Amino acid sequence: MQTRTLGNQQVGAIGLGLMTFDQTGTQPRQQLVDTVTAALDAGVTLFDTADAYGPGEEKGAGAQGENERLIASILDELGVRDRVLLATKGGHVRTDGGGWDTDSSAAHLRSAVDESLQRLGVEQIALWQHHRPDPKVPYDEVIGTLKEIADSGKVARIGLSNADPQQIRDAHAVLGDALVSVQNQFSPKFRSSRPEIDVCEELGLAFLPWSPLGGLSDAKELAEKHPAFAEIASDHGVSAQQVALAWELAQSPVVIPIPGAKRPSSITDSAAAAALELSADELARLDAS
Length: 289
Fold this sequence. Notes:
Blueprint: E1 3-6, E2 9-12, E3 16-17, H1 29-41, E4 46-48, H2 66-78, E5 85-90, E6 92-94, E7 100-102, H3 106-120, E8 127-130, H4 139-152, E9 158-161, H5 165-175, E10 179-183, H6 194-203, E11 206-207, H7 216-220, H8 222-225, H9 227-236, H10 240-249, H11 264-271, H12 280-288
Parallel strand pairs: 3-4, 4-5, 5-8, 8-9, 9-10, 10-11
Antiparallel strand pairs: 1-2, 6-7
């Protein structure tokens, strides 16, 4: 697989998003192991999770950190820690009612880093990302906390998620080279993050589209809702999902999509997008669709 730059490290051009493998929490563990193995075999080296991710929102606050523990245990079982850049996020929390909230207080973010270190079983987090802006905390205060976290040595790299262009610029002005990435939504359905991609390219930051296929339901319906992607996929003999990821890679050399996958076949198909070359005419059709 072709590689792209994330900070000072090369990673596969396609990553793997590990929000949750199954909403009910009943998916066989071996299927998870097989999916991770398939990702590695396909050249995927960036794995992305968060301390708020877990199997089933109905578990509420008790689910905090479950996905981190799960992926860490699978990587240890497979003995592949040295082949993966494992990223996580903090600042988005689960409530007892099963919903979501934000907490970007300095105390919480510092604690989130320490707890993720423990759950992931590492001495330093490869990439730690601020999950989303908190309306209760001014963003300049958040940036100051991120600077403290970067200086602590507990994380190797800092990322932002769900940040706008000015927030990215403000964070870069304070964090400098410690800031390496921005993770915002971008897909055939959701294209309004183009300004953030441009800022990332200007500043030399990786842009990691989350839900690059539009989310689970839209990924399944991509061909129906976006006919141009289906038509071009048919011409190439590949899936519309693969065309969507190739289109995103073509947006900028800083883009590294992180599709989710529950089955080995899904991540294998997604990873193949890194080798799919779309013509200028095809890209123009997709841009206009």
